[in-house]
Design brief:
Elements: E1 12-15, E2 18-25, E3 43-47, E4 63-72, E5 75-81, E6 84-85, E7 87-92, E8 95-101, E9 107-114, E10 117-126, E11 146-147, E12 151-156, E13 159-170, E14 176-187, E15 193-201, E16 204-213, E17 218-222, E18 226-229, E19 242-247, E20 252-257, E21 262-265, E22 268-271, E23 274-275, E24 278-282, H1 296-308, E25 313-316, H2 323-332, E26 335-339, H3 349-352, H4 355-372, E27 378-385, H5 392-408, E28 413-418, E29 433-436, H6 452-463, E30 470-474, H7 493-508, E31 513-518, E32 524-525, E33 538-539, H8 552-569
Parallel strand pairs: 24-25, 24-31, 25-26, 26-27, 27-28, 28-29, 29-30, 30-31
Antiparallel strand pairs: 1-12, 2-3, 2-4, 4-10, 5-9, 5-12, 6-11, 7-8, 7-10, 13-14, 14-17, 14-18, 15-16, 15-19, 19-20, 21-22, 22-23, 32-33
The chain binds alpha-D-galactopyranuronic acid.
Length: 579
């Protein structure tokens, strides 16, 4: 995947996207017949892609083998996969390198002594579910499978920089940041090696650490704290970014970072001390012609549509999005909610009490933090969505995730989306109360929204959490693109437009509500095999159809959002601090 900047100037990297060979393995014979030594009947495919879009494979659930030969000058290689759905098993020259579970975070393998010459890389991607899968089989999206994100091979030499994160604390006046950089280093050479890692911010040397590592040793190292005076702050109005570059004598790694402070005070979310009203949209990174292997050009187009809508925030429902999308948001000043695919309707109370599932979720959070930590656009870590939050197992799981994400997730708000606030037991363990409510669609009428937030506030008061800001993280109605009728007719574009505009105005006028994320940006393919039976086989609640053609609702939401944005910039609008 092409990031929006160069991560390496000195490290030799080769992208392995493009032509691969693939073979489906519906009878699960691939391993016993040793397809890792060469596919018996491989056919051309392009990577990244989803295999379901190959002829006759739309409903396929099972293993698919992929194979690619590449040439290497030899030495210590790192093979990185940005996303393989859902379980991956990887071999190099027939030897097993390892496995990974979870399609929306990346993983790497280090091969310490590769020979010079041609190598055969084999991957088995399996989109089946089991009792411990996250998500479980029941989801409201398609069971896509395959190598959905980029693959690359890199040559590591000497002391190599495997990963880094920039931790910082801003002082109260936001005029000085205390910074330290935490990095994972690896000695790629067969001999004990001493070197120094130099850390620079926008080209200015900020810190340096000397160390000696044994052959093939990995170590986490932290710089001495250093300070950045008068940092340019990241905000939607002025998304200032810095380039953080790390280098050793033989390796380098660059990332983009930003300084900003998000906090909750007096029932509001403050960004750099200013109250924020979230004008958001939920977006799946999905398209009927590409599945979850979303092309970068379409990504840029989605962003244009989102900006044109007047949005200042996106919820990446329901999994970590591609890093290049977050690069785009970092640059554009859009705020982001990043979550893992614990999609509640699929999770029973028993599943939430299963230690393997809870541990699997924690591992996904760990990977999300490791890979996305530096993006200033991420204001929210999402723990889960619509779980049965009225049971003890849910409380325990939420508490442990909340603690973990607060401790290690940097300056972020930790939240989850609840669809049962009247009986939810997890509301202590979150920074904002986030609600998925479909009044006017699954239940009730549009007019039921009037007074709804006040009723919820009564319960929040009784629980002692009424000081938490409220966000409507999902609400909406389905509309079939091109279906026009009286505005009271369900499935019509008119009804959807009217309902969304009504909701947004009701939310906007309530002092306890700090914003909303419309469900959803575009229609997405859903899956009958997942137990979701929807018109056309699509979730039709998009304000654009799946090909990004706007429905009436797109214009209705846009009108509201532009109006709210204008009000925000006026004195005494929502942009003012509440008394
Ligand atoms: C839930 C869920 C979404 C989607 C939505 C709907 O709130 O979080 O993924 O399924 O309902 O359309 O019903």
């Amino acid at each position: 995947m092409a990031r929006l900047f160069e991560e390496h100037l000195t490290r030799a990297c080769a992208c392995l996207d493009g032509a691969w060979r693939m073979q489906a393995d519906p009878c699960d014979v691939g391993e016993s017949e040793q397809w890792n030594l060469g596919l018996p009947n491989g056919a051309f495919t392009s990577v990244p892609s989803v295999f379901n879009l190959r002829e006759g494979m739309l409903d396929y659930e099972g293993a698919v083998f992929y194979e690619k030969n590449f040439f290497s000058g030899g030495g210590c290689l790192q093979l990185t996969f940005d996303g393989v759905l859902t379980k991956a098993k990887v071999w190099l020259d027939g030897d097993l390198l390892g496995t990974h579970t979870g399609g929306f975070t990346g993983f790497s393998f280090i091969v310490p002594n590769a020979a010079k010459g041609w190598h055969r890389l084999t991957v088995c991607a399996d989109n089946r579910f089991d009792a411990h899968s996250i998500p479980q089989k029941k989801v409201d999206w398609y069971h896509w499978g395959g190598i959905i994100r980029s693959v690359r091979v890199e040559m590591l030499r000497g002391i190599a920089i495997l990963s880094e994160r920039m931790e910082y604390t801003l002082d109260d006046a936001l005029t000085s940041a205390a910074v330290r950089v935490v990095m994972r280093l690896y000695n790629a050479s067969g001999a004990e090696t001493s070197d120094a890692v130099r850390v620079a911010l926008d080209g200015e040397e900020a810190a340096s650490v000397s160390l000696t590592l044994k052959p093939h040793e990995t170590r986490e190292v932290t710089t001495q704290p250093f300070s950045v005076q008068s940092p340019r702050l990241w905000s939607p109005e002025s998304p200032a970014l810095y380039t953080l570059s790390l280098s050793t004598a033989t390796d380098d790694l660059a990332d983009r970072v930003g300084f900003r402070l998000v906090e909750v005070k007096n029932g509001q979310v403050l960004l750099n001390h200013r109250p924020v009203e979230f004008r958001g949209v939920n977006r799946h990174e999905e398209h009927p012609d590409f599945g979850f292997a979303f092309p970068q050009t379409l990504m840029a187009r989605d962003l244009e549509l989102i900006r044109n809508l007047g949005c200042n925030a996106v919820r990446g429902s329901h999994y970590p999005n591609r890093k290049d999308f977050l690069d785009l948001l970092d640059e554009s000043g859009l705020m982001f909610w990043s979550e893992i695919p614990i999609w509640g309707c699929g999770f029973s109370r028993e599943a939430l009490a299963d230690p393997l599932i809870v541990a699997g979720g924690l591992e996904m959070h760990r990977e999300m933090l490791e890979q996305y930590y530096n993006h200033p656009c991420i204001l929210f870590w999402g723990m889960h969505n619509e779980i049965p939050s009225d049971c003890a197992a849910a409380v325990e799981m939420s508490r442990s995730y909340y603690r973990y994400l607060k401790e290690r997730g940097g300056n972020r708000l930790v939240v989850y989306a609840s669809n049962q606030p009247e009986k939810d037991l997890c509301l202590q363990d979150c920074d904002c109360v986030c609600l998925n409510i479909y009044l006017g669609w699954y239940e009730g009428n549009p007019s039921d929204w009037d007074g709804y937030t006040d009723r919820i506030l009564e319960r929040l008061r009784a629980l002692g959490v009424a000081d938490k800001p409220i966000l409507y993280s999902e609400f909406g109605a389905a509309a079939l693109f091109g279906c026009h009728d009286e505005d009271t007719v369900l499935w019509s574009e008119e009804y959807q437009a009217k309902l969304l505009a009504h909701c947004l105005r009701v939310f906007h006028s309530h002092p306890a509500v700090v914003g909303a994320f419309v469900w959803q940006f575009a229609d997405i393919r859903t899956c009958l095999a997942a137990g979701i039976n929807r018109a056309r086989g699509f979730n039709n609640k998009g304000i654009l159809n799946e090909y990004r053609k706007p429905k009436l609702a797109y214009h209705a939401v846009r009108q509201c959002y532009l109006e709210f944005a204008r009000a925000e910039s006026e004195p005494n609008g929502k942009g003012e601090m509440k008394p």
